Amino acid sequence: MAAAAAAAVGGQQPSQPELPASGLALDKAATAAHLKAALSRPDNRAGAEELQALLERVLSAERPLAAAAGGEDAAAAGGGGGPGAAEEEALEWCKCLLAGGGGYDEFCAAVRAYDPAALCGLVWTANFVAYRCRTCGISPCMSLCAECFHQGDHTGHDFNMFRSQAGGACDCGDSNVMRESGFCKRHQIKSSSNIPCVPKDLLMMSEFVLPRFIFCLIQYLREGYNEPADGPSEKDLNKVLQLLEPQISFLEDLTKMGGAMRSVLTQVLTNQQNYKDLTSGLGENACVKKSHEKYLIALKSSGLTYPEDKLVYGVQEQSAGTSSLAVQGFVGATGTLGQVDSSDEDDQDGSQGLGKRKRVKLSSGTKDQSIMDVLKHKSFLEELLFWTIKYEFPQKMVTFLLNMLPDQEYKVAFTKTFVQHYAFIMKTLKKSHESDTMSNRIVHISVQLFSNEELARQVTEECQLLDIMVTVLLYMMESCLIKSELQDEENSLHVVVNCGEALLKNNTYWPLVSDFINILSHQSVAKRFLEDHGLLVTWMNFVSFFQGMNLNKRELNEHVEFESQTYYAAFAAELEACAQPMWGLLSHCKVRETQEYTRNVVRYCLEALQDWFDAINFVDEPAPNQVTFHLPLHRYYAMFLSKAVKCQELDLDSVLPDQEMLMKLMIHPLQIQASLAEIHSNMWVRNGLQIKGQAMTYVQSHFCNSMIDPDIYLLQVCASRLDPDYFISSVFERFKVVDLLTMASQHQNTVLDAEHERSMLEGALTFLVILLSLRLHLGMSDDEILRAEMVAQLCMNDRTHSSLLDLIPENPNPKSGIIPGSYSFESVLSAVADFKAPVFEPGGSMQQGMYTPKAEVWDQEFDPVMVILRTVYRRDVQSAMDRYTAFLKQSGKFPGNPWPPYKKRTSLHPSYKGLMRLLHCKTLHIVLFTLLYKILMDHQNLSEHVLCMVLYLIELGLENSAEEESDEEASVGGPERCHDSWFPGSNLVSNMRHFINYVRVRVPETAPEVKRDSPASTSSDNLGSFQNSGTAQVFSLVAERRKKFQEIINRSSSEANQVVRPKTSSKWSAPGSAPQLTTAILEIKESILSLLIKLHHKLSGKQNSYYPPWLDDIEILIQPEIPKYSHGDGITAVERILLKAASQSRMNKRIIEEICRKVTPPVPPKKVTAAEKKTLDKEERRQKARERQQKLLAEFASRQKSFMETAMDVDSPENDIPMEITTAEPQVSEAVYDCVICGQSGPSSEDRPTGLVVLLQASSVLGQCRDNVEPKKLPITEEEQIYPWDTCAAVHDVRLSLLQRYFKDSSCLLAVSIGWEGGVYVQTCGHTLHIDCHKSYMESLRNDQVLQGFSVDKGEFTCPLCRQFANSVLPCYPGSNVENNPWQRPSNKSIQDLIKEVEELQGRPGAFPVSISSETNLSKEMESVMKDIKNTTQKKYRDYSKTPGSPDNDFLFMYSVARTNLELELIHRGGNLCSGGASTAGKRSCLNQLFHVLALHMRLYSIDSEYNPWRKLTQLEEMNPQLGYEEQQPEVPILYHDVTSLLLIQILMMPQPLRKDHFTCIVKVLFTLLYTQALAELSVKCSEEDRSAWKHAGALKKSTCDAEKSYEVLLSFVISELSKGKLYHEEGTQECAMVNPIAWSPESMEKYLQDFCLPFLRITSLLQHHLFGEDLPSCQEEEEFSVLASCLGLLPTFYQTEHPFISASCLDWPVPAFDIITQWCFEIKSFTERHAEQGKALLIQESKWKLPHLLQLPENYNTIFQYYHRKTCSVCTKVPKDPAVCLVCGTFVCLKGLCCKQQSYCECVLHSQNCGAGTGIFLLINASVIIIIRGHRFCLWGSVYLDAHGEEDRDLRRGKPLYICKERYKVLEQQWISHTFDHINKRWGPHYNGL
Fold first, then answer.
1. Strand, coil or helix: what is 159?
2. What percentage of residues in the chain have a pLDDT greater than 90?
3. Alpha-helical segments (H) within 797-893
4. Alpha-carbon gap, residue 1776 to 1790, rounded angstroms
5. What is the mean pLDDT of residues 1143-1160?
6. Of the candidates 1130, 1229, 1146, 1167, which has an alpha carbon nearest to the alpha carbon of residue 1011?
7. Which run of H or of E encompasses 1772?
8. Does the pLDDT of residue 1650 top 60, yes or no?
9. Is the peptide bond before 1275 cis (omega within 30 degrees of 0)?
């Protein structure tokens, strides 16, 4: 041992190939034990050196990678052996050494015993299924692994399951992140107390070995990284990583050993001395030196500097190493920084100079620069992270680093290291090709670190985390700045991000922003941010990069060539990089104590805004035809103001700027509102669809409360503080409708086309209404807001719970306020909405559970303003109004077309009272007056919507009027303004009654007003006095606004004057092209009140329609809130307004009465101007067009109906079911068919046959029947398995193979039916067509290149009439109608004669009206359809004979097709014929035609008359004890034959059409056989005693007269005959098994016999029904047997029904019963002499099958999911990516899995062929949906699991608990059984065998 150790110490010789491995293992163990002993001594220096030397040798890093790299230096390094072997060797050594000579596994177990498992810390990667419980989480990022979740108690919590996108770790046990109540059982106990402390010697070796091991790993990483010119290629990096896989896995395994080992690793990773000793590169070891150089090169190439000057790094070590951001070290390198930095940035963006300018400004502080460029590694951990980043976060490394996190000391050290490398991470991320994967991995790490408040706070204090983050973000965005073109394109100094850059387009900034948002969610961190002025300045600087990005310029000439999609990036960037951090900060400004923070933010925000206005040279006019939707600075300002007033009780005026700034602030948000109206008026249509997309995104639910809401709030604040006249005129000017607001009937609009005027005016008024009535930030509480939002969404449409959650804007930051699904959400929802449970129409769409507004919500809370604000699509507003109308009609509140109701508002917060001054300013009153007048005079371009908004504004004014009617303007001195001449005061209440007599207007010279005589000339007054007596002057909004602006500017500064004047005057000179305007004076003589009353007359269409209601009931004035006025149309609105006006002022009341008293002169017949006529005509034309359309539609519908009626037979009771056979008078015997292609009717003939449109499909539904009623359950544990041996298909298979073992093959194939699996089912829609028409139809489909859902080459098509899916045509047999068949008359021949006839007919081959020899069209078609039928199913389901291709096989297949179709029809009828009546498939059954085709083909194979079973059934043969028995296999004994199969063979062998009496004869004969089989089976099933008792009882009655019809006699005879063989001689053991516990009574025996015979009777009755068209009688279940028997003619007609029915009375023996029974039993006797067991088994036929069912599913989806989503596939033993389970048989399969592919078929497709003969129903485990495979197509069916709100959760995106929906599952099962998947599901696609 000593020698070995000495050899080991022998220094640095390359390791020679030593002993073979086994010997070496012993050797290693011994060495390790020796070293451990040496190290345990007090003086362990010698041992330590020995160990070091050994490690030096084993873990030398030169060899392996060099060999892998394969360069020349590999030889120089001189390592032998492949790279893999040496590394394995090294790992083995390490394991041995760690274990100190013991076994490694025992060592692991020993260490695990010391694990104080307080935290779970399980690390997972992407796609792992984890849980999040909002009830237990403190941090929104909290997550739990499935195991911890299920072991904790979360009942009733708000949790969901989710698929991890970036990976994560389990937080169970971490009380910083989640509440302790949610911990699972394992992590509840604080177990540190009772864990013994770790014995020193256990981990002693680890402390020595691990540093070397980790250093070795780092050396590998250094070696493997070569810095090529363009960054290392993925391939090289991956290669290195693959080689290192075992090492990293080894480390990962160490971390899993638990706390004890983790603390050792932490020591090793963070020990600075170790690191310095090993890596400094100062030693004499050349290899270490070389690797250190590589490390420095890598640092440098990353644009980082090592803090010391390289040449003297030994010396400066101490002085410089003080701080990781050491400025001393940094000084030396400053010179080179500039270059390093710029080389690092990509030079391709042309605006480099611009970027530089910006960069200088930022980089002025050395602090920033050092953040970006200096990295100093002082421990293994730091360098390990460096390489992890360099290699772009390999998954294994990430997992290792995260696995260590439960160790607290490590957690802190690692977090600091991570922060230190933050800038480097950003640089690597920007360059990475795989930025998506890398982003996910970064977040995987950072979310674990920064979600912990304690940790985040510590790092913020100690490592300047906030500085680093903000600086890094700023740097990142700097690389993609461009010059802003907003406002002043040439001289703008503002820069914005370029949304086309990859950085924004691919969301590369996402991980950094997400970290920032995460740390801001911690109060302690956010406080530091809000207190640090420098940081706030930098942050506002960052936000301003987004201010004005993605500028849109309106295209005026041609359509833009290329629609850029950059707006996605722009909106995402503003939401993620600006809005979300803003919400995070806001969530900490909720109380009074935080006022200071708000002041800081607002202050720097305003500064940034001022800088921005200066940078873009903005004065007061926005540049025309430009709009940007991105104003994050405005929005920061607005939101902090709102918070300040709402939560912090801050005085609003103390944080508002001066008037001039307010004027500037309002311009851009107002510009956006005007642009929205322009976009909706199609004025931006040349910019393409994307501009509409922007307008929609701006108001969309995820963006609205970070975009439009702050904008409108900011405008409300500005409006409340600015001069109202100025504000109102600004609005109309921005909306470009100033010129429209004139009393004249014609006007010139210089800025707007006439066709846009109306919608822009509507836009302006609607905006004012929203501005004045929205209270979101002006005083509503959070719950009121939530309620209003919810009502608005529900009024537009009924909504599912999840879409409501999605549509209600919540603050984007999860920690603020309304959490989705929170208590308030649910309580508000139940208050405003009713739940409509999902309903199912079996053929219709699957509906989901919906919420619909309660009646009282429609009645009192429907708020059109909120609806307009929140609609993304304009049609939603209409939808809300339609629903409102419907509600009023239904509840009888209002019959007509209502107007949007006026809703009372929450009261305003006192700070915003000034907003209401807008309603009381002369400018607005003039506008309202003008518009009312224009509407009354029917000027053009006005609409009902305009009137509605005008009235709304008047009503708002009345609701918010000042208390006293004083004229407060009087006090203000100053120049007389022109609008003073309109109204005396500014209070709406008094202005309403002010009469305006004359108005001066500017009109084009062509206007009608000019022609009239001016009233001045006729008036006796001179003009001067006239002017003062009430002519209003010309009113120009624009001039007013200019004046106001000027005054304010003059007040604030005199020198600004010079700047402003020229600008304003030059811009607004009217274009010269306009015709001359002249002044005219109009006589008006109206007040607002009189206009309203006249309007009432106009709307109602009656004179004097308005009668003041208070004249009858004075009370009405005191309580004006009257329900009768709350809903209605314009008339109601006018009445409501007049009532309010009267109740507010006595003067108004008097004036209204006066106006009403003056009998209004009749309105003169209007002279309609051409333009007005045009609008009127337009309306009328629309109305007429509508009516015409209705008429056309009605006509079309009736035509269609009559066509349908002619195309189908009308007298059939089900009109919708077409008949293929029209019932005609008795003498006509030809059936007539309609061809749905050419429309001609006629018989089907030999030359031109007609066919039925049919769908042939293989089906295994029958094979799935079992003999118990309860369906099998889907297995959800390992124990539960489903075995298919009790299915119908399996039982039949076993029977056939048993027969084939002992009997002659050809005879076996006639004794049973096949087709239980893969049988061919034929169904039709009942439409017929000429076969030649069909061929040409197929041709046209083939040439039609449109992608259909079906494949024409496979013969698929859709029925030309009803579009049902089909794939073949079944020829109709020419000849008589079924109903009036001459063969049907009963004949009185005796049964013996009939038997003879049947035999003769069967013997005549091809006795057909159609001779096969002459190939007619019909026979060709018959053959081709037969071919189709054969090809429908796979060969394995057709060939059962031992000699392939034998004709018997085809014979068997053909009659089995008939059997399959009959059996399936029986199942569709519910398994019995009690309901009777016509077939449920109605006239759509094609069995008759199918029989003809089958019969035609069966007659080609004549059965050798020797073997015809008919003989055996009807004739006695002489019994010869067959001598030649041994040589060949015998025939199948007749008692083993399947009677139903015999029936089909006999019937199909007869010439068609069949005579009824022949049919009855065959049935009678077969019934005797069936009955005998029943007796035989009964005899086998009962016990020995019962048998002998029966034998004697029956023998006594044998001589009675009707012995042949007594079951007792027959039974005793069967027993005595069969007991001659060895059938009843069983071994004793078998005896017990056979004993039946029931005591047999005569009743139970009778029931037994009937049950045995019923299936045969049912099938036979169905057959008779189809062949002869007789209806089936309906009956009770208990009398089914007797009813069917008499219907089939088995019961003699004179049969009395008094005494209980006995099945034996149906027997009609063709030959003496006892003789023939003896003959039948003899066959069995001779067989059982040899094979008693099998003989007995074959006698027992399982005939009582229950209906088929799909598997029964568990109540809760989670049980399925948890078992299957981790289950390994039995074929490939992997866990499938997309697991699925078959709902028919429970097989677990890999969907799309290439692992289980066989001959190009994926597993699901393969399984669908094996299990369902081409039909598969699979539940996709990871998506909860069901997928149907039908042949070569598939479709998504939907889900049968719904959540508590009745919704599907496809792909488990929401992860809420799901419960089975029984109705849906029933629908699915119904479609499976009835084979209607093809018809009901519409969305099919080809699967190309890839599922």
1. strand
2. 25
3. 801-807, 823-832, 855-856, 864-870, 874-891
4. 5
5. 82
6. 1167
7. none
8. yes
9. no
End-to-end Cα spacing for the chain: 62
Mean pLDDT, residues 368-381 taken together: 77
Rounded to whole angstroms, how far apart are CA atoms 774 and 699?
Answer: 15
Describe the crossing of helices 380-390 and 259-270 by its angle, rounded to 10 degrees. 90
Distance CA 1864, CA 1819 (A): 14
Most confident listed range (33-37, 287-291, 971-975, 1518-1522): 287-291
Residue 835 is which amino acid? Answer: F
**Strand pairing category for 1319-1330 and 1077-1086:** unpaired
How far apart CA 657 and CA 604 sit, in angstroms, is 12
Map residue 1121 onto helix, strand or coil: coil
CB 1496 within 8 A of CB 1374: no
Which amino acid, one-letter code, is at 813?
A: N
Compare 1025 and 826 and report the one with higher pLDDT.
826
Residue type, 1315: G
DSSP class of 1796: G
Bridge-based pairing of strands 1031-1032 and 996-1004 is: parallel
**1742 with 1753: CB under 8 angstroms?**
no
- Whole-angstrom distance, CA of residue 227 vs CA of residue 185: 50
Residue by residue, what is the 3-state secondary structure of 692-760? HHHHHHHHCCCCHHHCHHHHHHHHHHHHHHCCHHHHHHHHHHHCCCHHHCCCCCCCCCCCCCHHHHHHH
Q: What CA dihedral angle connects 113, 117, 123 and 127, to 10 degrees?
A: 100
Neighbours of 1065 (CB within 10 A): 10
The per-residue pLDDT for range 785-825, each reduced to its tens digit, is 999 999 999 999 999 998 998 888 776 544 433 444 466 88
- Name the packing angle between helices 465-478 and 523-531 (round to 10°): 70
Q: By 3-state DSSP, what share of the chain in percent is helix, strand and coil, each rounded to 5?
A: 55, 5, 35
Query: Are the CB atoms for 1054 and 660 separated by under 8 Å?
Result: no
The secondary structure of 1430-1477, three-state, reads HHHCCHHHCCCCCCCCCHHHHHHHHHHHHHHHHHHHHHHCCCCCCCCE
Phi/psi for 621 (5° steps) reads -115, 120
Helix (H) or strand (E) holding 393: none
Which two structure tokens, joined as six digits, stand for 1823?
A: 């998506």
CB atoms within 10 A of CB 1606: 19
Task: For residue 1817, report the phi and psi dihedrals to the nearest 5 degrees.
Answer: -120, 110
The one-character DSSP state at 161 is: E
Give the pair of three-digit tokens for residue 824.
Answer: 């308030």
CA distances in angstroms from 421 to 346, 428, 456, 1043, listed in the order given? 21, 11, 16, 58
Residues with Cβ within 8 Å of residue 1319, at least 6 apart in sequence = 1258, 1259, 1260, 1262, 1433, 1437, 1456, 1457, 1459, 1460, 1813
885-889, 1224-1228, 1792-1796, range with the lowest pLDDT = 1224-1228
Average pLDDT of the residues of the chain: 78
* pTM, to two decimals: 0.81
| H or E stretch at 1827 | strand 1826-1830
How far apart are the C-alpha atoms of 939 and 1003, rounded to whole Å? Answer: 14
Using one digit for the tens of pLDDT, what is the confidence trace for 1502-1520? 655 556 777 777 777 765 5
271 backbone dihedrals φ, ψ, rounded to 5°: -70, 115
CA dihedral 1521, 1525, 1529, 1531 (to 10 degrees): -20
Q: How far apart are CA 1098 and CA 1093, in angstroms?
A: 9
Size of the chain in residues: 1891
Q: Are 809 and 869 in contact (CB under 8 A)?
A: no
Query: What does the pLDDT average to over 10-27?
Result: 41
Task: Give the Cα separation of 1866 and 1753 in Å (integer).
Answer: 11
φ, ψ of residue 481 to 5 degrees: the values are -90, 150
Mean pLDDT of 974-981: 54
Residue with the larger pLDDT of the pair 1060 and 1194:
1194
